Structures are given as C-alpha cells and as structure tokens.
Amino acid sequence: MDILNPxxxxxxxxKIQEQLNNEFKRLEGECYTxxxxxxxxSDSQMVKIYQDLSSNIYPNPxxxxxxxxxxxxxxxRTRYRILDFFNASSDDYSLVFTSGxxxxxxxxxxxxxxxxxxxxxxxxxxxxxxxxxxxxxRDVVAQKEAEVKCLNHDAAFDVFSxxxxxxxxxxxxxxNSLFVYPAQCNxxxxxxxxxxxxxxxxxxxxxxxNRKSNWFVLLDAACFxxxxxxxxxxxxxxxxxxxxxxxxxYPTGIGALIVKNTSIDSLEKIxxxxxxxxxxxxxxxxxxxxxxxxxxxxxxxxxxxSIISLQHGFDALSMISMDNISNHVxxxxxxxxxxxxxxxxxxxxxVVKLYTDSGYQNKEFQGGIVAFNILxxxxxxxxxxxxxxxxxxxxxHLRTGCFCNPGTCQRHLNLSNKDVMNNYDSGVKCGGGIxxxxxxxxxAVRISFxxxxxxxxVKTILLMIRKCFLDSPEVRxxxxxxxxxxxxxxNQYQDxxxxxxxxxxxxxxxxQDIRKNSETFKNANIDGENKFLKLCNIFIYPIKSCGAxxxxxxxxxxxxxxxxxxxxxxxTAAGICLTQKQEVMLCLIKPIICLQNKVMxxxxxxxxxxxxxxxxxxxxxxxxxxxxxxxCGHRVEGVDCGIEVGEWLSLALGRPNLKLIRQHNFDKxxxxxxxxxxxxxxxxxxxxxxxxxxxxxxxxxxxxxxxKNSILDRFRGNLIVEGGLPFEEYSWTQVKIGKEIFExxxxxxxxxxxxxxxxxxxxxxxxxxxxAEEFHGKMKFGIYLSKKINDSTIISLGDSVTIxxxxxxxx
Length: 811
Description:
Blueprint (H helix, E strand, L loop, with lengths): L13 H10 L7 E2 L10 H13 L12 H18 L7 E6 L2 H11 L11 E5 L4 H4 L2 H5 L4 E5 L1 H9 L14 E7 L13 H6 L4 H4 L4 E7 L18 E5 L1 H4 L6 E6 L16 E5 L4 E4 L3 H5 L6 H14 L4 H20 L1 E2 L7 E4 L13 E6 L9 H10 L2 E2 L1 E3 L4 H7 L4 H9 L10 E2 L2 E2 L2 E5 L6 H15 L5 E2 L3 H9 L18 H12 L1 H4 L10 E7 L8 E2 L3 E5 L2 E2 L5 E4 L18 E5 L4 E6 L2 E7 L4 H6 L2 E6 L2 E7 L2 H11 L5 E5 L21 E5 H10 L11 H4 L4 E4 L9 E6 L2 E10 L18 H7 L5 E7 L6 E4 L4 E5 L6
Parallel strand pairs: 1-14, 3-4, 3-5, 5-6, 6-7, 31-32
Antiparallel strand pairs: 2-8, 7-8, 9-10, 11-19, 12-13, 13-18, 15-18, 16-17, 20-21, 20-32, 22-23, 22-36, 24-30, 25-26, 26-27, 28-29, 29-30, 31-35, 33-34, 33-37, 34-35
Helix pairs in contact: 2-12, 3-12, 13-17
C-alpha cells in the first residue's frame, strides 16, 4: 500500500457485504468502533435465538431424564462445536463453560499446581502487556509460594529471539511453571507470536530462572478469536481462555476455559458445587468429585440457556471465513492508521500520536485495532474526554482510557511507575474522566473493528478528526520517525518516543503559542474596564433537558433553586431519565409557566398544547405512582404525572411508554448538610457571563454551521449577568444579586449537549470544538452557584450584581 496515499482494499465479496448490511440495519447512521470491548450481534442471530427459546422447553440439565436430556444433548453438542471451531479434537482438549475470560483466568490461578518444594519454587511469568484480569492472578499464585516475574515487551522478544538449549523438562523436574500471554493485545492490536507456545514447552524460559522447570502456557485469546483463526491442532497451549460476546455479541456472561487433556493433572480443584460431585456427606466432611473434567469444574447449574444460544452465534460468525475476517479488519485498520500517520496540521506538525508495535505492515502481527492520541498544531495533547464528546456528535462509538491494560498503556505513554502513582494521587482512576495531568495523557483513544465494520466507519472517524481537530489546510507527509522504524519493525518492537523530532522545526513557535494560549482565560479583553454588573436574564428549565422558560420580570428562589426549575423529568419505559444526549428533540418541548392559572403548558411542533397542574398537593403524592430513577448517578424519586401527558410525550418524540415524573417533595425539612437540589443534580443555579458568550460567539467563523445568535441558549444558564469582562467569573468566590448572596461552587464542565441548537434540535461541532481548542481541553463554561435559605425570596431582572473575587475584593 502507498502509505502517503492510502487506499482501502475490499476483502468481502459484494454478496457478503450486502448480507452484512441487511443483518445490521440498526447501524445505519451509527459508527460502532468498539468491537474489542464488545462486538455486535446480528439480527438473524437474535431471531433464531428467540424462535429456539420460545418454541422449546429447556429444563435444568441436572434434572436428568425426559426433556432434560434435550438440554444436556444441545449443551454437549455445543461443547464439541466450539472445540471443532478451534480445530481441537476432544481427544486432545476439554472445554469448561465459565462466565467469561476473567472467571477462566481466576480458575487457573486458584487450581494450577506449581508444586513448590523446599529446593525450588514454581514460576508465574506474564507479559507487561497482559490484561488487568491476568494481573489479578499474581496475588493468588503468590500465596502458593510461586515466584512472580514480569516480562516487558522488548525483554520478551529478546528472550524468544535467542537460541536456547532444548530441555526435556517433564521427566526431570518436580516443579511446574506457568507462562501467560495474550494472543492479541487489546490496547494496540499487536499479535504476539503463537510460535512462542512451542518454544516455552521446549524450555525457552528456563534461562529466566537458571534451571529446568515443567512449563505450561496459558493463552489469553479473548481479543484474538473474534477476528482471527486459532488453530489448536497447530498451536497447542495448555490453557485457552475466551469470552463469547467478544466473538459474536450475544449472549454475554458466558465464556470458556479450554484445557489440553495432557495438562489436566496440573489443575487441582478444592471447592465443589452442585453437580460436580458423585456423592457428598452432610454430617461428615467427605465427598467424591466427578471423573469427567468439565463436570468436575462446572460448579452449580451452568448457564444452559446461554449455552444453547451459542450455536446461533457461531452460525452468524461462520457466514464468513475467519481468514477473510482477519484480512478485512486488518485492511480497515491499516487504512485508518496510514491516513492518520500522514495527516498533519498546516504547520507540518502531526495530528495524532499513534501507538503501534507493528507499523501496520503485516496482518500476521497486527489486528484490527488503532490506538492514538490527538495533538493540536502547537504539539499539545487533546484529552481523550474531549475526543469522546466530539465523537458523540458524529455518532461514533469508541473507547478511551487504558482499556483494562495498564501495562501497555504505561509503556506507550512513556509513563514511569512514579508517574502512574502521581497520576493516581491527582485523582486518575481506571475508567475515570481525568485525561490529562500536567499536559500529559493518562490514556488513549481506541478504534477497534469487527467483522461487520465498513470503510464508512473509517471515513466517519477521519471526518470527525479533520473537522474538529485539524488546523487546516492539511499537510500530508510520511513522518521521519516512521521511516526510521520501518527497519526495526521487522523485530516487532520500538523503543523510543521518536515522534518528538517532528516538532524541532517549529519548536520556538510552539512555545510561543502555548504561552499565548495558556493566558487566554486571564487576558481575554483584559484591556477593558470592569463595568456595572446587573442581572439581565432569568431562565428556568421546568422539565430536565427540555426547552427554557424565559422569566419576564421576577422569580421566586426556593430551598432547591429557582421555583419549578428542573422539577420534572421525562423517563423511558426502563425508568431511565431521558436527556438531549439520547434525544435532541427534547429541546423543542417548550414549557410555559402560567402562575395565574397555576398550570404548566407544553408545546411541541405539530402537537396540541397540553397542560399540567402546578399545584403539588399531598393527595397527588399519595395517589400518584411513585417512580425511582437515576440522574447523573444520583438516585431520585418522583410521582408519575399521569397517562395523558405520558402519551403526549410518546407521540411527540416517537418513543413508546414515556412518563413525566415530578420530583417528590417531602413535608419534613431537609437534614442534609449540602444544599437541596432539584433534578439538576449538579448545583442549584448556573450563572453565565454574557461577555463570555459574546467573546466566544465572536470567535466562531462566519462559514460555521453554528448560528452565533444561538450560543447563549446552548449553555442553558439560569442567571445571565452583563456588564463585566469575559471569563472574569472564574475568579469569583461569591455573588450578590440584589439582596441575595450566593456561593460559587466552581465552573461547569461541558459536554456535547452545547452543540445542540436549542431552537432547531440540529447538532453542530461548535461551540464545543472552539471551547476545547481555546482552553486546551478544559471544556468549562459558566459557574455553579448555591444558596441555603429557609424562606422563599425573590430576584428580579435588573438587580445589581456585586461579586467577591479570589483576591477577596468585592466590586
């Protein structure tokens, strides 16, 4: 492939592609690229599962005779089909059903016999690039007095590349050792050589311990088998662990431990559950375990309905040969990698930093995964949370973070153990949202392809990156570091942060840009003088995530915030709070508060107006159906407003079984130390500085599809003040509006919701892209306020605003 001008080479025949399009119609308009996390089930697969389960009776397989035999028969048939899929004879391998890869790894950790003696200890050797679930084995095996050793990426290739004396271990030694490694790295998609299995069996790792040992190999194939062919007749690990949802999406919670029959004696199981013993005494500690290996290891009733469903998953996956699938995902990944590799900002600096151990030159060493971080034209990193928010605008499903692979993440991000610990002290946690610490990334962005992925997925990702992160006009070139590494990639590893030399030419300009941009918050329009501040707008949002109601004069403050602000929310049939993240057209539901008539009217284009009473009487609370939900992780409770308004919402939004829920108001006073909240869940009030809005609108280019006049509405503030300087609100610690004093709780972190035009429901890239670019990924706009009061008070338009800043100077 021409790296500078990459082209996608189709692998599937037209008939196969059409069949896939028909099977995954629900992907129309969506870009799903998280197949390493979980691949997708096909339509026909689910239809067959439903038809199977709805037309047959499958009792507990332990029930024995009668129709119970059907469950047993299909379970055993499925067991053999799985072995056959991996070209493994039942004479050579046995299969134990587990709840997944993690459970299989845990089983090996608990049952493997290291046979430590007074003279020697068995060894547990794993790679730095192993999944977290492998790392979790260490403490278990250490309790068995096994020596635990970690091989980093380069050391592993160094060990296996050298000639080693061939040892015949099993007849001469008494201790057992276990080597665990991934067939494919779930961080980078790098494929580790399966030839290592035979080398380990021949004693290649004896050099690590300076003596002989009986070596066994545990192959983590979870990330590998969904898009690659694993032939156990050629490569013969002692243990293989897999999860089926990684292969064909459904069912979840079911996996397998595949064990070579000659290695069964290396496992000793202590615990036994129902179905795993021939007999047991209750009054005496005595039992006899079953002779058949899988019967001895499958505690309790197996997940038999899920196992029965597996056959339909294998039918779906077998529609295409695994070799074609492997070629297909590699072709997609190679095209994406080369496109990103050669994409540069107008000043010649790269748009992404790629994390690769193969260079995407050979499918034997690279799977369908591309991991990277995005860089600004200044060389600064873009936080992965910013990428995640932008991806949501393009309906791209991707994964960010370290992907439960801390070792590979640490290696590619060039973080020391001290760096990782310092990051943790700064609040970085697995699955958390802190993406940058001191300008350095804590994780990455991962794109992973599955057998149903298309070239349109790649084009959507490239479109998002060009539109949101490229400082155009784009420059295309092959980086010097890639040309240098092409030679060493024949040995499958790189050992330095070689991208840095791409920045040398523009080093001084980069420093100047960083210094300039880092002062943006402080210096935006700083030459102006501070003017008289006043309250110019009051907005409430009666229904969470729906349209705003503009206050014309004055409004009441309650113990929870502005009266009626976010007092209602819309929930789905599953009881989930519906927001504009899932349904942008919520913004077109316009609530109108009629205080005189004590009703709230709801308008929606093409729908008749409907009214909801504002009175919240004790009778309503008693008679109304109580509903519980969660908002931003917080548990909330409310009363159903009735069938009529629920049907109105369902018709308007085209979603069945919607409900309007009103927050449940208790008569007893709150005993909480923190201020009470409505369904807003974050803070009682959100204040927006109009000068900051005007500054941001002025930055939006004239050819943008974002209407500058819509900016204020997009940020959905409650209290709008005018007369100040842009972004001075970030130094405020206290705000006095009229006679009322509010405490500042901090800035409001923004997401893709600010990209929704609140008047049309249309999504645009701005202003989130501009906000992130101007403030180096700190997507914050507006400040939260809180106020604890016992009696209701009033604020009015035109009220003077006095602030106290961080220097404790009221003005």
